[in-house]
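User: I've been going back and forth on whether these two constructs are worth ordering. Before I decide, could you fold them both?

Assistant: Sure. I'll take them in the order you sent them. The first construct and its structure tokens:
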Amino acid sequence: MNMLIIYTHPNHKSLSYAFLQEVIQGSKENSAIKEVKVLDLYEEQFNPVLVFNETKRRRNMHSEPSLALYREQLTWADKIVFVYPIWWGRPPAMLMGYIDQMFASDFAYKDTGGLLPEGLLKGKSVVCISSMKGPRFYPLLWLNNAHKVLMRKALFNYVGIKKVKFFEFGSMESSKGRHEQKLKKINAYFRTVSQ
């Protein structure tokens, strides 16, 4: 199994970065994982800004030359792991800009003329590891699970990815957030996960 980790946090001293390290470490001990690649969107200086004009059309985004390497990474990966904080009830704008550009028509899905498109990323699986300041049940009780609905239904299911796992950790700015326990949980998951 090939695994692509998409890390989205500007600070390498953050809890998100600690989660990234546990994903990598756990994966090294998993014989089912053949190779791991990490895409650090901030370090990469990925440009999240969409530009459409007379020469750059949205319908051509699937073949945009500047995004070719990122398309190759997504095509190569069997499992895609997203590591990011939750800010204002959703992933960071940097990650959303990546999603806007990479999950494009004729690459991630194909319009069929029907109600739903044909997902072109079938067979892949996704893990989302996110952390937030608010309590764990805040997204469910206050936001109607908007984050998970956005990621699972509006994005991954739409492009054909049906196997989606969430680790959504709350109270992460609290001294009672049980950080070590949660880091160990991520490490243990990636030591044993299969497709």
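The second construct, handled the same way:
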Amino acid sequence: MFAKGFLGYDASFMLDFVVTALVAIVPLQLYSLYVIKVQRNFSLHKRMQLFLGLTLLLAVAAFEVDTQVVHGGWRSIVNKNPDAPRLAGDAYRHVEQVLKIHLIFAISTPFLWAITLILAWRRFPNPPRPGQHSGTHKLLGWLSVVDIVATSVTGLWFYYAAFVVTA
């Protein structure tokens, strides 16, 4: 049912879904920064970050189950027909290198975001307002933003190299 994607390339549905989510999550993250820095709406920032964090967790979990269990790994999605692979040789090695770079950020992002959220949950009062943890939270928050942007950029780079260029 979800073997074929919806973006018009030969990717899986979940791969197309995650790529779409990566495009959407960065502007939402930037809006959340606007909410906290300009509007100083700590409660909305908290709700947005919890929503984005939960969405990230669910999307990554569903994506990994689909990629690893349903399809048997990313290679099976990229080269669905082993008798006539779409990627081989240098093109395949390039995509594999791009994926390795992407995974550095994709693996660290959920952990960094979880640490940021858990510490904020424990150390900020309810309703949230600035306090002793603000400096640490600001640093962790910016690291999380840089990490999710890098995850998004490298994820889109992988998708482009694996599916768009070879279409």
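Notes on the second construct follow. Residues 57 and 108 are 12 Å apart (CA to CA). Residues 89-123 form the longest helix (35 residues).
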